[in-house]
Design goal:
CATH class of the largest domain: Alpha Beta
Radius of gyration: 21 Å
Strand content: 5-15%
CATH superfamily of the largest domain: Type I PLP-dependent aspartate aminotransferase-like (Major domain)
Number of helices: 12
Strand order of the largest sheet: 1-9-8-5-4-2-3
Number of domains: 2
Helix content: 25-40%
């Protein structure tokens, strides 16, 4: 009899009791807006910014409404203007080119490498061809490229790097946290990310001018002196009349929910990586399957799992998806002709006028993606791996 998995791939852990208590306290006093504070009160948002800056080692932090807002705000803050060209990974999710489009710029996509990171050789080519001076680097699905090599390329070409760390909060390359390599790091606290406030985002940087512009862009209403993790008030004097208010602040309720989760991030990372290792071990040496090998310098967070069915016919891939779905295992496929939910790819984003990228096309045609929520156990992941192996074997035999 076939094994069946009965868990949910979209069910997250509950908010910690400390977060619930803090949220209730905010609701009871009613001061949800970040600048609506009692005398002597720091406010949950300001405290979250201080704590996240300390956790990442950044000088400055700004809490905003979403990860997508964080990226668009960061692009504006580093000087991207309408009509500019901005480099980015071809393998990413829609909010990344969406952030570029939000500022009136044009994405210039870069090929994906075999390990699903940005292809550094093609990056050099696209820098030279496009003349772009900003790279919005997506650490897509938690896969981190050789950041030292990437920064060498970008620094030599005068390209500023904005890191999209939506999938790498708590991760690092060669001991340096993601978000701390480039000029700016952008994080998400959307439900399926590493901290959960439903929606939310965080921006970090050591650059005082960039962060002063970001604070003003977020809608500070001249309350920038209430930001304890931002540049000193005098830095705003030359900017405050020239930077538009594009409101996107985080509120105290979401910050209250997030602060206890931040304190438990290291423990959550260890649990995610245990789930990841269980699936990886279960799929080891499965015929027809290419696993994505992580490099020793990559301190990743395994909150999702990817593998390649390289050069499999589309019909065989669909057979695997259907067989797994019937047994309770929810997979996403980046090779489908039409976007499905959040699973879309660069050639679906017609507003970006994409140019075909054959290397990326081949990878995405066989790329399978699976969430690993912390509501799973390692036993669940071992079962999921057995179901995957069985359905992959059956599809190959039938195909």
């Amino acid at each position: 009899m076939h094994e069946v998995f009965t868990g949910s791939f979209t069910q997250q852990e509950p908010i910690p009791e400390a977060g619930i208590a803090a949220a209730l306290a905010v609701m009871r006093h009613g001061r949800l807006h970040r600048y609506n504070l009692a005398e002597g009160e720091a406010g949950e948002v300001a405290l979250l910014e201080q704590e996240f800056a300390a956790a990442t080692g950044a000088h400055y932090c700004l809490a905003v409404a979403s990860g997508g807002y964080a990226m668009a705000c960061a692009l504006r803050a580093v000087g991207v203007r309408p009509g500019d060209r901005v480099l980015s990974n071809a393998f990413t999710l829609a909010p990344v080119p969406g952030a570029i489009a939000a500022v009136g710029a044009t994405p210039v996509f870069v090929e994906a490498a075999e390990d699903l990171t940005i292809d550094l050789a093609h990056l050099q080519t696209q820098i030279a061809r496009s003349g772009a001076k900003v790279l919005l680097l997506s650490h897509m699905r938690g896969h981190i490229c050789d950041m030292r090599a990437l920064m060498d390329i970008c620094d030599a070409a005068g390209v500023s790097v904005v890191e999209d760390c939506a999938h790498t909060m708590g991760a690092a390359w060669d001991g340096v946290a993601t978000g701390r390599w480039g000029l700016v790091g952008c994080f998400s606290t959307q439900t399926y990310k590493h901290l959960n406030s439903g929606e939310g985002g965080l921006i970090v940087s050591d650059d005082s001018q960039v962060m002063a512009r970001a604070v003003l862009l977020s809608g500070s209403y001249m309350n920038y002196d209430r930001h304890s993790a931002s540049p000193p008030p005098e830095l705003f004097d030359g900017l405050r009349l020239d930077v538009p208010n594009i409101s996107g602040r985080m509120d105290n309720l979401r910050a209250a929910i997030l602060r206890p989760q931040l304190h438990g991030l290291d423990e959550r990372r260890a649990r995610w990586n245990a789930l990841y290792a269980t699936v990886e071990a279960g799929l080891e040496a499965t015929p027809g399957v290419t696993l994505i090998r992580r490099k020793p310098q990559e301190g990743f967070v395994g909150s999702s799992f990817q593998f390649l069915l390289r050069d499999w016919p589309a019909g065989m891939v669909q057979t695997v998806l259907a067989g797994c779905r019937a047994r309770g295992v929810e997979l996403k496929w980046f090779g489908a002709a039409e976007p499905s939910g959040f699973t879309s790819r660069y050639d679906h984003w017609r507003y970006a006028a994409p140019v075909r990228l054959p290397q990326t096309d081949r990878l995405l045609a066989g790329l399978i993606d699976m969430r690993l929520p912390l509501t799973f156990t390692t036993g669940d992941c071992a079962l999921i791996a057995r179901i995957l192996r069985a359905e992959l074997r059956a599809a190959r035999q039938a195909g």
